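Side project, low priority. Logging it here so it doesn't get lost.
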Amino acid sequence: MDKQKLYDIIETKRPVLTALSDKIWTYAELSMMEHRSTAAYVEVLRSEGFNVQENLCGIATAFSGTYGSGRPYIGILGEYDALSGLSQEAGITEKRPLVEGGCGQGCGHNLLGAASLGAAIAVKQAIEAGELKGTVIFYGCPGEEGCAGKTFMARDGMFRDLDAALCWHPGDVNEISTGSNAASIQVEYTFTGIAAHAAGNPQHGRSALDAAELMNVGVQFLREHMEPKCSVHYSFADAGGLSPNVVQPTAKLIYMVRGENVRKAKALLKRVDNIARGAALMTETQVSSRQIDGTSSTVSNEVLEQLLYDNLLAVPLPSYTQKELTYAATLKTTYHTEGLPGDRTEENRTVRAFVAEKSDNGNAAVNDFVIPYVPSNHFNPGSSDVGDVSWLTPTAQFTAVTWPSGCPGHSWQIVSAGKTTFAYKGLIYAAKVLAGSVADLMTDHILLEKARAEFRAATEEGYDCPISKDLLPTIG
């Protein structure tokens, strides 16, 4: 079909999409608490004629909107959860929280979900007009930041029947996401001891805080003996209290264990578990553990990545007003950064030279170009629950510019930019790229079969879900 028709639909829906994005930005709800955000999406989906299903996989803030009939079944993934501690006024270039300690859309998920929905609406109207054949499904995926919502949905087989899934993420570059990333498992360790007066009768106390600190020491020594591409991080959720003259009876740690794949992450977790038990034994305390979540490594699909890249080039890039460029340049100065954008460029000198030239050696305020796509085995040490989707169906994703070059994710700068015309332009651009890519998959069955053949070869070992069958999502 003529993709310009899809682009035109998205342009007509610009007010709906930006208004929805603004609502999600304002709500700024944490993982699995996105009730107002869910209601806003469901309202738009129903008004646009989608068949809506709520409470997917027993998760109150997971939902889908479906339109069409027959294959191919193409899924578009959306997210909308926020981050704690990132409340920020919009459109300004200084840190100024709306609510001290409040939440904010520091990863641009307000834009992410709205653009994905925009693409689904355009494809829906094309199916309705008889110009495309197949079924488009918009997935409302909660809790990406806090509890890996897609993993819980994948565990229950939510994406297995799809022919392909596409997604995107806000960022400071227009680029295909390629290669893989780390699998992760997040576990909470709770130590329980015996309280006592730290000076009067310390011999009667058993310090849970000592146990927690000894566990951390043990894991520090473990780091030398971990496989490459593995890492371990921790935080104190409970240090036992504020009184130093009390032998602390409780302590709680949260550990995130990462590995090249789920198998290696699970193996490393067993070693961390042993250290926790050893710390409890040394201090004569008790320890229990509770898994919070987990994510799988990402299965790359070069056929779909090339498809997304072709559509990144086909859609006209946004142009910016002088006011928007001035805002971007000023916001960029609030965060000192060195080097060039895009970790994936580091492995390819040709691409890196291209980026250096286009971005003035990383000094440009806006990366208003598309980074050349080069299939890569690049390993990203971070983690994403999109990885779990990629083990069940061919999956690919890209980033699009919605904030100035060099501004870090999960920052007040991203929250500030997320409710501006600068960001809206990236939202609309991403929606058009997604819609055009879905249209290609619905009209080129050979292309889709190539993607599925690559997927089958890459996933022969099968999906090793990183969470247990009975684990429930953590709220907040």
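Brief comment: Residues 183-295 form a domain with the Alpha-Beta Plaits fold (CATH 3.30.70.360).
Revisit when time allows.
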